[in-house]
Amino acid sequence: MAFNLQKIENPDFYIDFTLRKARERVSVKSFKGDKVAKNRQAELIRFDVIDTVLSDKLRNIHLSYPRFDDLTDFYKELVKITIDAGQYKKSCAAIKWADNKVSFFCRQAKSRIAKSRDLVDIKKTRDSNIGRIVSVVKQIKSNLKYLDECRRVFKDYPTIKSGLNTIALYGFPNVGKTTLLTKLTSATPEISNYAFTTKKINIGYHEQPAKNIKLQILDTPGTLNRFNKMNLIEKQADLALKHCADLVVVVLDLTGTTYLREDQDRLLDRIIEIKKPFIVYLSKTDMMDKETIEKLQQEYNAAGSIEILIDGIKTHFKKHPNLAI
Ligand SMILES: Nc1nc2c(ncn2[C@@H]2O[C@H](COP(=O)(O)OP(=O)(O)OP(=O)(O)O)[C@@H](O)[C@H]2O)c(=O)[nH]1
Ligand SMILES: [Mg+2]
Predict the structure, then answer these.
(1) Nearest-atom index, ligand 1, CA of 198
(2) Quick check: CB of 287 below 6 Å from ligand 1?
(3) Which of 38, 60, 85, 237 has the most neighbouring CB atoms within 10 Å?
(4) How confident is the model at residue 321 (pLDDT cuts 50, 70, 90)?
(5) In the chain, which segments carry CATH 3.40.50.300?
(6) pLDDT grade, residue 197 (50/70/90)?
(7) With 90 as the cut, is the pLDDT of residue 29 above it?
(8) What is the pLDDT of residue 169?
(9) Which tens digits make up the pLDDT trace of 237-278?
(10) From the CB of 187, is ligand 1 less than 6 Å away?
(11) Of the given ranges (12-26, 115-129, 214-228, 291-305), which has the lowest mean pLDDT?
């Protein structure tokens, strides 16, 4: 999972859980002094428990759900296309507001109870502040619900690490991108002889510790030449390409068994348009004769084997002194 998020419950769950914990704590304590003193001690403990337990729950939510502004560009864009970013921000802020309010009412109640010499006043203070706390938590009902909906969407986000040399495998459906990922890394995603097998971004790591090489390789779902009417899966691939890839490997299947060469050529224009460095890789060369491979290698300045591709990748990253390779 890209974000480590906990399941969110409804307000009644948090309220019941907290008040029960507070009741349990108060009931096991024995208090000293007259009736007023005993009640005062009990209610001070009750609000201590309410503050700790409820704030803990709310704080866990607003700390674990990432602030939109802290997200990388890739996740910001992904959030924008998969959920309502405005409503997400508002919901996070509402949880924080509720957390502060709960603590405020607990402090207010404790301060008044500590000074009170009157049993009725102590009970009144307790009931009115518990009432306010319950009302605060009920007020964020729709925000809690929305954040839990977001959690279900976030669950399917790819976990793309920042700070690693990242390569995106890009190309038409069925051309052999996932097969290439399995040759470069130990990832084992599904490979099938039909288009659109890959429906999410598969991630693998190519590591050669002795040579200080660590590459993050993103196998993107197959794309077609329809940049203005992409579905969500294609949009994800496009975002990974734009925001995460330091280098793109364009996988071309020029065996004539899948897509037309002219159509596949247009993907190269796309890469040039978004100004990404790229290497062309010819897949399925075992289905071609030697002369054809040599001709295509020259025409596209392409890698016609996995060894040549790895050499090309190394050469590319060596030219970037900031990168680890
Ligand atoms: N002969 C041969 N077949 C290959 C090669 N690479 C892939 N294939 C076959 O081509 C088909 C598609 O391979 P995938 O790796 O799933 O292709 P993909 O580009 O990831 O496909 P999508 O996920 O649908 O976009 C499978 O049947 C593979 O076995 C290759 O180098 N040679
Ligand atoms: Mg695939």
Answers:
(1) 23
(2) yes
(3) 237
(4) low
(5) 165-318
(6) confident
(7) no
(8) 97
(9) 889 999 999 999 999 999 999 899 999 998 898 888 889 999
(10) no
(11) 214-228
Which atom from ligand 1 is nearest to the alpha carbon of 181? 15
Cα 196 to ligand 2 centroid, rounded to whole Å: 7
- Bridge-based pairing state of the strands 213-219 and 165-171: parallel
Distance 65 CA to ligand 1 centre (A): 38
pTM: 0.84
Cα 314 to ligand 1 centre (Å): 24
Which residues make up the CATH 1.20.120.1190 domain(s) of the chain?
A: 11-154
What pLDDT is attached to residue 205?
93
Find the ligand nearest to 195 CA: 1
CATH of 165-318, picked from 3.90.1150.10, 3.30.365.10, 3.40.50.300, 3.30.565.10, is 3.40.50.300
Ligand 1 within 6 A of CB of 177: yes
| 20 pLDDT more than 70 | yes
Which of 169, 174, 193, 286 maximizes ligand 1 atoms within 8 Å of its Cβ, making it the mutation to test the pocket? 174
Q: pLDDT grade, residue 4 (50/70/90)?
A: confident
